[in-house]
Specification:
alpha+beta, Alpha-Beta Plaits, 2 domains, four-stranded antiparallel β-sheet, 6 strands
Length: 160
C-alpha cells in the first residue's frame, strides 16, 4: 500500500485522503495512519507546490552550482553538505558523480544576488576547491510537469 500511496501523492499532493482511500480500495483511517507513519519515518519529507514563476511577473533567478570539494577527514562529504544546506538560500544539495562532487540549487532575485552568494559564502568554505554556476534560463519540464506552453501548429491547411 505504501508504494501506491507514494505514487499517487508524488504526482498530486493535494489529493483528498478520502479519494485516495477509494482509489486504493482501503479504509480512510488506514491511509491516514500510513501517511502519518511515513511522515514520522521521513519517507515523506514535505508537500510542495510547483509554481511557474515566469507567469507571475515576479523576478526570480534559479542557479545550479556544481561544487568540487575536499572531503573532511573522518567526516566525508556529509559534513561539507551539511554546511552548504544550512544556508537559507540553498534549495537543494545533491552528492553527484562526475567532475564535481555536489550539485547545489538556489534561488535569488537577481543574477548578482546569486553570484554574490557563491563568491561570498559558498566559495569561501574551507573544503570548497571550485564552483561552476549555471543559471536556468527557461524551464520546460520540472518535477515531471511540463512548464512550457505547447507549440501551435502554424502550418496552412491545404485541401486536396
Amino acid at each position: 500500500m505504501r508504494e501506491k500511496i507514494l505514487t499517487f501523492i508524488e504526482k498530486n499532493s493535494r489529493i483528498d485522503v478520502k479519494e485516495l482511500a477509494i482509489v486504493l480500495g482501503v479504509d480512510e483511517a488506514a491511509v491516514m495512519n500510513e501517511l502519518e507513519e511515513m511522515e514520522n519515518e521521513h519517507i515523506i519529507c514535505g508537500y510542495h507546490t510547483l509554481i511557474n514563476w515566469e507567469k507571475t511577473g515576479i523576478e526570480k533567478v534559479t542557479a545550479m552550482i556544481e561544487v568540487r570539494v575536499t572531503p573532511q577527514r573522518g567526516m566525508g562529504f556529509d559534513k561539507v553538505a551539511e554546511r552548504i544546506y544550512n544556508y537559507p538560500e540553498v534549495e537543494s544539495v545533491y552528492l553527484i558523480s562526475g567532475g564535481f562532487d555536489f550539485l547545489v540549487t538556489l534561488e535569488g532575485k537577481t543574477l548578482r544576488e546569486v553570484s554574490q552568494f557563491v563568491s561570498d559564502k559558498l566559495s569561501t568554505l574551507d573544503s570548497v576547491l571550485s564552483t561552476k554556476t549555471n543559471f536556468i534560463l527557461k524551464k520546460y519540464k520540472d518535477h515531471g510537469t511540463i512548464m512550457a506552453e505547447p507549440t501551435k501548429d502554424e502550418r496552412m491547411k491545404i485541401a486536396p
